[in-house]
Amino acid sequence: MIAQLRGLLAQVEADRCVIDVGGVGYLVQASSRTLAVLPQPPELALVLVETVVREDAILLYGFAEASERAWFRLLTTVQGVGAKVALAILSVLPPSELMMAIGSGDKTMLTRAGGVGARLAQRIVTELRDKCEGMPTGMVATGGGVPGVTITRPTAHSVAADAVLALSGLGFRRGEAQPVVERVIERHEGQVDLDIVIRDALKELAR
User: Fold this and answer.
1) CA distances from residue 104 to 15, 40, 125, 130, 137 in whole angstroms, order as listed
2) pLDDT in tens, 109-141
3) Which residues, 6+ apart, have CB-to-CB distance to 178 below 8 Å?
4) Is 66 a residue whose pLDDT tops 80?
5) How far from chain centre, in Å, is Cα 153?
């Protein structure tokens, strides 16, 4: 099975990209969030991959960070949520907001994704509410106003840790990723966003 790809980004479309690894172009389907943080073709790109084998095809799904791949795997355990719908959900809801939506039973947030109606949103909430504990979000917990729901906010420390973890999953050594992540966060003067940190760190590491 293919777990990650590192190569030249040959092409980017609305819901997929092509990564050239040693002259072989791999078609990788991805969420709009992952595609947004990829570099411009033909720069070097690294993506985590979930390989799905069917009777008629071998499909690759790519992710910029480990938390998104973990949620993709969890979402596709729900009946009616295939890979396409899971990517649609992850395109409109980052892991932190997805965690909040499921924990608070907010079906409206889930129905923002294409292919998710009220009935399927309810099924996702019902089946995953008790499975969300321990899922990665890229955020750090704080007190919440909804009983039984943890509201989260990012901090520089938590974003740095998650960014280094994601970059390690993409094949970089922790020792080389850590200082780059710290420099990126310092440049943003504490205004941190995990997607931005990973994107900028990848650009530096790819040089």
Assistant:
1) 29, 37, 9, 12, 15
2) 899 888 899 999 999 999 998 887 777 765 433
3) 160, 164
4) yes
5) 17
Between CA 112 and CA 117 the distance in angstroms is 9
Taking a C-beta distance cutoff of 8 angstroms, is the pair 50, 69 a contact? Answer: yes
Tokens of 14: 């609305």
φ/ψ of 28, rounded to 5, equals: -120, 120
Q: With contact defined as beta carbons under 8 Å apart, do 66 and 165 qualify? A: yes
For 24-89, the three-class secondary structure string (H helix, E strand, C coil) is EEEEEEECHHHHHHCCCCCCEEEEEEEEEECCCCEEEEEECCHHHHHHHHHHCCCCCCCHHHHHHH
Rounded to the nearest integer, the mean pLDDT of the chain is 80
pTM: 0.65
User: What's the rounded mean pLDDT across residues 178-204?
Assistant: 79
Residue 93, CA distances (Å) to 8, 40, 128, 151 in order: 28, 23, 15, 15
